[in-house]
Structure formats: structure tokens, C-alpha cells
Amino acid sequence: MTFEPILPWAIVLLPLLGFAVNGATAFLAPERKEIPTLVGPGVLALAFVLAVLNFVRMLGADLHDPVILPYWSWMPVGALQIDVALQFDQLSMLMALIVTGVGSLIHVFSIGYMREDPGYARYFAYLNLFVFFMLVLVLAANFPLMFVGWEGVGLCSYLLIGFWFKDREKADAGKKAFIVNRIGDFGFLVAMFLIFANLGTLDFVSVFRAAPAAFTYGGTVVTAITLFLFLGATGKSAQIPLYVWLPDAMAGPTPVSALIHAATMVTAGVYLVARAGVLFALAPLSSTVVAGVGAATALLAATIAVAQYDIKKVLAYSTVSQLGYMFIGVGLGAYAAGIFHLMTHAFFKALLFLGSGAVIHAMHEAFHHTHSDWDPQDMRNMGGLRHYMKITWITMWIATLAIAGVWPFAGFFSKDEIIWQAAARAVGPYAGWVQAIWVVAMAAAMLTAFYMTRLMVMTFHGENRLGAEERKHLHEVPRVMTVPLLVLAVLSVVGGWVNVPHAVGDLPLLGWIPHSEWLHEWLHPVTAAADRVIEEHLGAFRDAAPLGGGASFWAVASFLLAVAIILLTARAYRGVTIRPAVESAPPTGLRGVLYNKWYVDEIYDAAVVRPIIAASRGLWRWVDQGLIDGLLVNGAARLFGRLGLVGARLQSGQINAYAFAIAVGVLILLGFVVL
Amino acid sequence: MVTESLILSAILFSIGVLGVVIRRNAIILFMCIELMLNAVNLAFVAFSRAVGIEGQVFVFFVMTVAAAEAAVGLAIIISIFRHTETVDIKNFNLLRW
Predict the structure, then answer these.
(1) Which of A649, A651, A660 minimises the CB distance to B21?
(2) pLDDT (tens digit, 9 = 90+) per residue, A155-204?
(3) What is the complex's ipTM, to 2 decimals?
(4) Is the Cβ pair A652, B22 closer than 8 Å?
(5) By the CB < 8 Å criterion, does A646 face chain B?
(6) What is the pTM of this model?
(7) What 3 state SS string does chain B have?
């Protein structure tokens, strides 16, 4: 049976329609909150239903080649033929499901979170626009159309980070995100030019079909293309060296952080690498760079996360770290594993962010009642919130267990698979590096368990550190916010069960969740070409980790390790008295270095930002004002002014002089005529 | 005979030019211009002896134009004199840059 999509264009256009309606409301009647409340989440829910319908159809169909739906010709320029076309295959279908599904839940949560905000309609307009561009990104059938989505989500990210643009700091955070992303976009563009120059097409299907024959394995061109693509990915997906914008992006409303800066947009880079898997498989050096950068980012961000006090900052660095894991997966050539972690991460990280949003919402209301100026996001001001917010507390623990890699929660399966792939794929010319990546990934996993437990203990356990008056106003958030939490909590538990490896599914105790490598099989038509290239050149993988031990051993070991770290951390924090932020001294020593994020922002400021500003000022003062304005423009005018003055002296007004000039002129003319 | 007449004409013309260049009195200037015109008339007459009657026709035209010019010119000078109490052209330099 062949796959025929149902109203595929509507999935993409519904959010755009929502943007139009909400945008018009924001301009014409911003106080009409019922319109965005209905339209904003409504179009998303409809898009999700359509996506599910198509997904079910695709399940029933035996789909090997992607379905391309061209709508109109966009850039017919000689050899360059670019259509506006959507591509439906297993990978883009899965991404569309995640985007619309998690997106719907976050839209619903936003109704409660943004209820009091005067920019309510504007908020939903931006959010709908974001989903539209995100769907363009994942459903595009060629690189340029994907780039449209790529740029569009960047724009919406900028608009939503700076949503409260009257606050200078928040507006600056938006600008930082946009500018840092531009650096990555440059890489994406160069990669596109290189692909076109070498293959003469930019359609995914044609490029990936032609690539294995056109490029030599490990050749310079394909390595350059993939490295430039990865530069684009580091910008969008917040990897070293371009990760610095994501923690600052927390200035936006918390549901935005959940949707854009955790679940969907930041995973675009992972999607790009997985989509271009054939190219990366042909460039082992680039692949190792991807995995290495991912591992370094995972560890660096995790170390920063352990010393942050702002609840959203911890989650932001946690996101950077988890994105690092996804890049380890796709960098190693385990594209399905990377996408698997992308999916489970979308569930539990969206849940964590929405949970933190609920906490911030409750804290903000409590402080609002007493006009306190304490920071509602600082975990030192929280503590003991589990007595006031039971649902938030339980659901966030579920997400914490999931991200820490505790069986049977979703994160265990996806993270363990990536770590195991790093052990198994330590073959070929870069085996040594891959082994190092495995060690780093293990270390970062332990740090994850630690900083997440720290977050939970500081927020929900111990003594409540609010004043007595504030405490009276602490209460659970309304149902419109808790229901999305509950749904995401269920997904955070069962989300990993779609892809249980033999190594776990066949074990005695852990085996009651049956082995099913459904996701791998589902994505197989997409990843097959890349897998073939890897198999051809690297051969068989190892069946034991560098330190010995097989897949089952390390799965159980990492599970037990995660549990042990969670228990030890919780125990260690029992004896610690935490003081509210206003009474605490700034952290010193190593903790201070980590709290200040290894001073990376300061280093970038000194090494990049200041030189650029100084050079720009030099160009402005000397080249633009001095050379161009001064010498060329004004200089030319002044030169002819001076020359004119010389000529003007002849106009003396004396008739004698004129007569003399005429006489001399006549004599000269006569001289010419006669002689 | 023609040659001598032309030499005389050239001398008169040169005196006229010289007068216009070096004198300051507007009346004198005017007379010098008349002198130049009449030097040209003399040349026309001299040529008409050798070439034909057309030169003399031109002389009449020149005399007519000179008469008209004298009327307009003198009127301007009188008008200026009423205004500035002088006919020294050194003072008439409104049209400088």
C-alpha cells in the first residue's frame, strides 16, 4: 500500500493561520484574550491531529522512498531548480509529531502562564509563527526551503526571548541569540553553495542519492561541506563554541524556553545532521568532530549546571548538555539513537521547563502579594515547595529520573543507547577519540544525576525559605497548567519504551518492558544509506566497552550509578543549610568559577566582541568618516570650490579688463587664422 | 589707395580699442566705441572700391545701428550719472562675482 498524505499542507499552514488571526488581534483588540486562547492552542491541536492521522497512514503503508509534494516552482534559475516542496518520510513525520504534540501542550500551558500579560495576543502570534517555521524546517524537501524555516525559527526565537523588550537585559539577550545564530547560518549557507557547486542540486533526495558516488570517502570536499553544516548546527543547537546564547535566552517567558529552547528549535541542528547522514557518514573526520564537540559540550555545560542558582539557568545548561549527547549519537553515525534522545528529551525537558514555569509562577504570585523584590527564579529562595505544589513536585521528579537515566524512565533508554554506541563504535581511524568520548559521556551522565537532584532538593525539599506572609499565598498552579505537566510526565515514562534494546529487554528483572527496536526499524528507510556507507568502511562494531563489559553490563551499571548518585546527593543536602539569596555571599573558589560559567562570556567579550567593536569604531572614524566622507566626498566638493574661486577672480566687474580680454582673444584668434 | 585706407582704418580701430582698455570715463569709452565702428566703416568703403557696392550698403546699416546704440548708451549713462553723480566706470562694478 502506498502512502498518500491527508491535507499535508494544512499541517504547515494551520499555525500560519493562527499567527495571522492572533497577530491581527494583537494589533486591533489586544484586550480580547478569548481569541488567542481559542485560536493559539486550537490550530496547534488541529495540526497535531492531522499529523497523527498521517502518521497512522504511514504506519499502515510500506514506505521506502520519501514522498515529495511539490507545490510551486520557487527559484527556477538555469541549472538551479528549487521548488517549494514538502517531504514526508519517517524522520520528518516523527519531527512533525514532536513539534505539534509537545507544541500543543506548551500552548495550553501558556494560557495559564501568560494570562495576566498585556501582550497575550502578541505572545500567541509569535508562538504560532514559530511552529509554522519549525514545521517548514522539518518538512522541507530541499536545503533552501529548510533554510527558510531555519531562519524563521531564529527570528521567532529572537522575538520571544526579547518578548519583554522594555527590559534592556532581555532585549540584549534576544540580540545575542540572533547574532550568535547568524555565525552558524553563515556555515549553513557556505555548505549549501558547496553542495550545489559539486552536485548541481539542492533537493534532499537527489543530493543523498548522488553523494556516495560523487564524493570519495573522507574526501576534502565532503569533509568541508559537513564541517560547514555542523557550524550551522552548533549555532542553532547551542554547541561549543556557539552555545553562549542559550543560557541567556532564558530571559523569555518560561513556556518559550520549554518549546523553543529545549524541545524543538535547538534540536534542529541534530535533525540537520541526521537528515544529512549520508554526507556525514562519508566524512569520518567531520563525524568525529561532531561527536567530540558534543561530548565536550555535554561535559562543560554539566559542570556549569552544578553551580547555578537560577532554576532556569540549571535547566538551560542541562539542555546544552543533553544536546551534546544527541550530537554524540549522530556524530558516531547512530542517527536513530540521536533522534531517539531528541524525542525523549523533548518530553522530559519540556516537562522540566514547564514545571519550573509553574514554580516561578507560584513564587512570583507569592512575592507579588507582599511586594517583595526577591528573585522568584533563585532556588535559594525556594525550598519545601512540595507541600504546596504536589502535582508539579511529582511530575518534575519523574522528569528528573528520566533525564538522570533511571530505568524505566524514557531518558534511560535513549541516553544509555548513545553511551553504548560510543563504546561499540570505537573502531576505524578515530577509535581512540571515540573511546575518550565514551568516558566523557559517562562522566557527564553522572553530573546530570547530581545537578538535577540538587535542583529538586533545593526547590521542593528541605525547609521553606519564604517569609511567613509569602507562604500564605503559595499554592498549586491552575489545572490548565497542570494537565500538560501530567501528559508530559506520562510521556517521560513511556516515551523510551518504543526502543528497548536487546541488552535491556532480555535481562531477567528489567526485562518486563519487552525488547522492541521499533524506532530503529521505523527510521531505517531514512538511515539505511548512511548505515551502508559506515558498514562498508568501518566494518563490524565492538561488542565490549573499552574497559570490558558488554551492553547489558554497562546498562545496569549506569542505571545503578544514577540511582546511587541521586540518593547520595539527596542525603548530602540533608545536612546543608541554604540561606536565601539576599543573605548569601557570592560563591568563591572552584564553585565561583563554575557559577561564573568558566568566564566564557568574559573571554568571548575580550577576545571577540571588544576587538570587533574597536575595529568597527576604527572603520567608522577613520575609513568612513575620514577617508570616504572627508577625503572623497567633501574633498571633491572642496577642490572644485577652490578651482571655482580662481575662475571667479576674472569676474572683476571692470569693463576695461573685459575689453582687454576680448582684445587679447581676438588677437589670438587672428594669430591662428593668419599664421 | 585701398591699402592706405585699410592702414588708416586699422590705426583708428586700434586707437579705439586702446581707449576702451585704458580710459575710465564712460563718455570717452563711448566715443572710442564710435571710433571703432567708424574704422570698420572706413574699411567697408575702401573695400567697396575694389569689390563692389555692397560694402557701402553695410556702412549704412552700421551707421543706423551706431545711431541707435548711441541713443540707448547715452540714456544709460545719464541714468547712471543721476544715480551716482559720476561717469567713472571704476564705480560701476555691480556685476562682479
Answers:
(1) A660
(2) 999 999 999 999 999 999 999 999 999 999 999 999 999 999 999 999 99
(3) 0.87
(4) no
(5) no
(6) 0.83
(7) CHHHHHHHHHHHHHHHHHHHHHCCEHHHHHHHHHHHHHHHHHHHHHHHHHCCCHHHHHHHHHHHHHHHHHHHHHHHHHHHHHHHCCCEHHHCCCCCC
